[in-house]
Design goal:
Order of helices and strands: EHEHHEEHEHEH
Oligomer: single chain
Number of helices: 6
CATH topology: Rossmann fold
Shape: globular
CATH architecture: 3-Layer(aba) Sandwich
Strand content: 15-25%
Number of domains: 1
Length: 178
């Protein structure tokens, strides 16, 4: 049994990327894994201020928000799923803001299996690769990070347009197999 953490960064509960996160979760639960899904929009996560308290002095981030709790959950997880809508061919601001806040303990986020879940109005999966490349930059900073799979929820803009698309099955299968 693996400990799976799903971070859904959609600003819309029940949006297309959030729905794909739910499908991944259903597959992982069915496989017997312990799963926690966190909807980032429910959390208070401030942008990094670049104060360098963490990087230069090795001290905890002075900001009093929810980021420290979520980074601690990443450290404890075996599998981390990062779900985002694709805006202008990259991750949404909520996800990027959170990733920047991982700086404080990123050296402790080791040997994790990562899955990426994307939803975009764009039909061309090749154009969505830019978003995967952006996530890869984060993974490259983490020791032993392995990208295990990507769900491309292409052609889904309005809420619910992901329903019936192959990505729904792919998300469930990846969750089941994680």
């Amino acid at each position: 049994m693996k400990k799976v953490l799903i971070l859904s960064s959609s600003p819309r509960r029940g949006g297309n990327s959030d729905t794909l996160c739910d499908r991944f979760m259903a597959g992982a639960v069915e496989a017997g894994h312990s799963v926690e899904k966190i909807f980032l929009a429910d959390r208070n996560i401030n942008p990094c201020t670049g104060c360098s308290v963490c990087s230069m002095y090795g001290k905890p981030c002075p900001q009093q928000d929810d980021a420290a709790e979520l980074v601690a959950k990443m450290i404890e997880a075996d599998v981390i799923v990062l779900g985002t809508p694709v805006y202008f061919y990259t991750m949404c601001g909520q996800m990027k803001t959170f990733i920047d806040r991982c700086c404080v303990r990123y050296l402790e986020i080791r040997n994790k299996e990562f899955y990426i879940i994307l939803a975009a109005a764009e039909d061309d999966v090749k154009l969505m690769e830019r978003t995967v490349d952006t996530f890869q930059g984060f993974f490259d900073c983490l020791e032993g990070a392995t990208l295990k799979g990507v769900v491309y929820g292409a052609g889904a803009w309005k809420r619910g347009e992901i329903e019936g698309k192959p990505a729904m099955t792919e998300a469930w299968e990846m969750g089941r197999g994680c």
